[in-house]
Design a protein that fits this description.
Layout lengths: L4 H17 L3 E8 L1 H14 L2 H4 L2 E7 L5 E8 L4
Antiparallel strand pairs: 1-3, 2-3
């Protein structure tokens, strides 16, 4: 049983990281301007097509300075 909220948060983060490592996907995280982020995501999807690699933008957010932080994911090999 966690003793503090911090213990609980660390345990949850650890379980999440373990789950992500074991799911078979490769993830790449980028932080770029909006236009560069679009180009990078398009190039990633062109290189690793969704039909073969199940590629997608897993998550994204806009940073306070206007940059976009996003994570792309794909399978290690084409199916």
């Amino acid at each position: 049983m966690p003793k503090t909220p911090r213990d609980l948060a660390e345990g949850m983060a650890e379980r999440r990281q373990r789950r992500l490592r074991d799911d078979g996907f490769v993830r790449e995280t980028f932080t770029q301007t909006r236009e560069d982020a679009r180009k990078t995501a398009r190039a990633f999807l062109d290189r690793f097509p969704k039909q073969a690699y199940m590629s997608e933008v897993e998550r994204w957010r806009e940073m306070p300075d206007g940059a976009i932080e996003f994570t792309m994911r794909r399978l290690r090999t084409a199916d």
